[in-house]
Design goal:
By secondary structure, the protein is an all-alpha fold. It has 11 helices and no strands. Helix 9 runs antiparallel to helix 10.
Amino acid sequence: LDLDPAHAGARTALERRLTDDKHKLAAAGILEPIYETLAEWAPLVGVHEIQLAAETDSLRRTALLGKIGELHKRRLGDAEKAFDAYARSFGEDPSGDAAKREIEELAAVVDKGHARQVALFETAVESGKLDSALVHELSLKIAALHEERLSNTDKAVTYFKRALEVQPDDETSLSALENIFTRDGKYPQLLEVYRRRVDIADP
């Protein structure tokens, strides 16, 4: 398979092998640098998807999904497919800062992006597989999105409280709940926030 990439016949022969289960992974490995050199980004995405389907290591899968997302976003200008790739990357590793950052940026431009972002983050939090620091981080993000983007105050309250379960003295959550309960005239709940502040100040 060591063929001249500039030769159309050689490329065609390699690309035929991308549909052959026995040879497609090897063909993808050969075509990857060819597509990169020739700036053929859509076929390069296809090669990475073949590599992804064969990969079992979570770190390498996350890296491949990052490449796919980057190609869709930077080279192909397809925000929807970029969001999908980063969403899959987040599913592989919810702790990855790069995927979270890209999801947050793309959520502003894709259809129902903030709702999709919240769904991803909520699924991760409710999985029971995350460490407490990540549960706290994502709970704050979810709560803020519900309050600021989705107009779902009840859900915002739920996740601010979830953040407080992890970090009882979290000032961000306490301030947000204080503002919500004051605005909405929910004085018994507001009193609970004040009591919690007293407990924190005088343990």
